[in-house]
DNA sequence: TTGTAGGCGTTATCAG
DNA sequence: CTGATAACGCCTACAA
């Protein structure tokens, strides 16, 4: 096959053990021996076999990432944070696209085990899926740390990086109320998603603060996708007393709303007001002054890797047998006002 | 550590070899023995260690994917095609985000070798980079097939999946000419990119067909990113005799153009005409009738995996020692007219 | 049909 | 500071 550690050893007139020490920057090697070996390594263009090393150490630097919808720009941004951070920390990323299919999600769990990944970062598809929850807890117990991002799992206490969905949503709806709106509609996220639920609770809480009863006619069950949101906008707007403002629960939903709004030629912040969750670069290009609840998505990805790194470090210091703290990180949200929240502006 | 093939063997009262045969679906195992082993495997929740297997067979089912700009929706779509196809064929994807940094690209090549990936799919950053070319050819020679996507490398004959950039661009510009435009500007892609160059040649060829001389004042050097395109639009439009139509060489560039156009309140297909390369879902939502050169990006990703699969199969049939054909697949483009090409519409 | 034994390329533990 | 040698978990001739 390809050139191995013995070839180097032979050439250098030493044993494989010494070469191994050099490769791994271990102490107790004479400076000269080291230099010589290093030279031979580079001149023979030798690259240690990671498979063999991992097998021997029982520890890969590979981490798995399960992502439900690769084309959603939110996830792309996350992915960039993740890949950058994992490069920084020396991990390889195994990418698994689950495409919103729970079967795929489960299939990938098997892969994770087979490949002996040292950690996984998961955006679970269904917060209520007991099987996923079980499998993930098994990983944790087996010493494979799990970090959730954005979405969570019900009754499944794991590490995770989330955002302040409740606060963000509350602030957005509160803002609309301050603007004078009283008929505020929302298109909810999927019921089995933590962010969807939190944002819904934020909506309710803001209404309650202002002593306003939530009304069925202004509430729609969305699925975080554009098509449905677009349809729901029709049913929201084409009723006798339509809402004066919309709170949309994610970026795709906002697109659906905007689709309807631009199609009807409505003026944002004039004919209809709106605040969406999650910013999109595209809005700027299109000169669309949509107010949004923003958060640092890139850093969510980065934080997830750091959290994982920390957990992995704790696991390798098993000698102290510390009980490590579970951590949930909540990235703050920020309300960015661009005018679409205005009433009859 | 975790449970291994010997544990299963002991429990089943057979040797590890027999268990191995069962795991790999090899013949010459009594049906009953097989059933029994399978039962034990599932009851003990055993998953074979892929690292050990790969080390032993010298063949991983892992393939690397180098992508320059994860947040570009074109690449997201590609990524979806790739992940779906690789799941279908049983590969794992190692994702490497190069972020347009040639150093990262080279660093990842090292990783590819260390991890003994069985193939790589690359979107090279710089078509003129000799080092990348050299490394990729080395991989090919070492039996690690390489498939390029979209972008290529100069003087580096490798397998690849591209699209009919020249034809697409030619058709777009020809269409603008048919509409009566004579002052057609273009914002070019990077000079070191194959698609950028092909699309530029298509532009020139179309002009030539109509006997029109390309004019410096209507040509700008872009970089496939939005910001620069936006700036270049200023310099294009704010001259004494501005162009009447724009041909934009990729999706991000189109965004930059649209940014300018919407900001100035220009009417697409009225005040200014335009055709872009690559469609974007977003356009529909924003009700923007941009005509585009479209291609099936998802299938480009899928095709890349299929090409790789074929090459891998050929390599394993080394006994025949066939010289396998290098393949370049060119996905067709399609001009989608939505009105923005019209003149004084 | 099944078992034995050696090898894949490293690392790690002891000795020296 | 360096070298044998035994793992790591699986596959695969070859033998039985």
Automatic annotation (TrEMBL), chains A, B:
PROSITE patterns xref list: HTH_LACI_1, HTH_LACI_2
Keywords, ordered alphabetically: DNA-binding, Repressor, Transcription, Transcription regulation
Domain of life: Bacteria
Domain named HTH lacI-type: residues: 3-57
One family name in Pfam for this protein: Peripla_BP_1
CDD domains given in the database record: HTH_LacI, PBP1_LacI_sugar_binding-like
PANTHER family listed in its UniProt record: HTH-TYPE TRANSCRIPTIONAL REPRESSOR PURR-RELATED, LACI-RELATED TRANSCRIPTIONAL REPRESSOR
Name the record gives this protein: Catabolite control protein A
